[in-house]
Amino acid sequence: MQADDPARFDDAYYSRFYGETGAHDPERLAHLALAVHHMAAWWGITVRSVLDVGAGMGMWRDWYRAHHPTVHLQSIDVSPYACATWGHDHLDIADWRPSAPFDLVICHSVLQYVDEERVVRAIDHLGAATRHLLYLELPTTGDLMHIIDPERTDLHVFRRTARWYRQHLEMHFRQVGAGLWVPHHGVPMYELEASR
Ligand SMILES: C[S@@+](CC[C@H](N)C(=O)[O-])C[C@H]1O[C@@H](n2cnc3c(N)ncnc32)[C@H](O)[C@@H]1O
């Protein structure tokens, strides 16, 4: 099966890579979601809308629903199984460009599943989707060699270098760090707070 075949994201996949045997679970995710939400507040960003791209089990969407129920949420996923089970819109980020931006966009562990031909379009769509802040995480070639735990991480993915991703992301964003990116002409950052 191809790394980007939507049918591979099924019950077995989510059971294998989430929960006790996986990369993260709702409890760990809550630390990250709280930190991202509060960093946004620090920069004066009021998060009124969130787009969760490749939402999977919907942990980000559920955290926002529980802690900030007035925030407008949209979660999308390419997997028919995930959409039917956790209630996302069945959309592929490489094909779908939102008509209006969201204050915060989450793209957590998704782009490594998008093939060479389509990933640049997916990044362009993330650029169009983000009004204030993008949270992005994915394993690069270097991470897959040196950082990730091979027991807990899916290795059947597209491998690209950090340099490759930066080149394309920097068309739309400045890197803040810790997975956060701000659009060019977005909230002003001190020189040492974000890359140029
Ligand atoms: C590793 S899981 C991450 C789930 C979730 N973001 C999290 O971190 O808990 C990857 C998810 O991305 C979805 N996905 C893969 N390619 C996608 C695409 N092109 N558009 C939207 N979702 C995609 C998969 O169906 C799967 O649910």
What does this structure look like?
This protein is α/β, with parallel strands linked by helices and 196 residues long. The chain has a single domain (6-183), classed as Rossmann fold, CATH 3.40.50.150. The protein contains 7 helices and 7 strands. The protein has helices at 11-17, 26-42, 59-67, 80-86, 116-129, 141-146, 162-169; strands at 49-53, 72-77, 89-90, 102-108, 130-137, 173-177, 180-183. It has a 7-stranded mixed β-sheet. α4 (80-86) links the parallel β2 (72-77) and β3. α2 (26-42) packs across α3 (59-67). The longest helix has 17 residues, at 26-42. The termini are far apart. It binds S-adenosylmethionine.
Features:
single chain; 196 residues; Rossmann fold; seven-stranded mixed sheet; 35% helix; globular; binds S-adenosylmethionine
Q: What's the count of strands?
A: 7
Principal-axes geometry comes out as globular
Helix amount: 25-40%
Total count of helical runs of at least 4 residues:
7
* Strand adjacency order, main sheet: 3-2-1-4-5-7-6
| SSE order, one letter for each helix or strand | HHEHEHEEHEHHEE
Sequence-ordered SSE layout with sheet pairings:
Blueprint: H1 11-17, H2 26-42, E1 49-53, H3 59-67, E2 72-77, H4 80-86, E3 89-90, E4 102-108, H5 116-129, E5 130-137, H6 141-146, H7 162-169, E6 173-177, E7 180-183
Parallel strand pairs: 1-2, 1-4, 2-3, 4-5
Antiparallel strand pairs: 5-7, 6-7
The structure holds S-adenosylmethionine.
S-adenosylmethionine is lined by residues 9, 53-57, 59, 76-79, 82, 92-94, 108-110, 113-114.
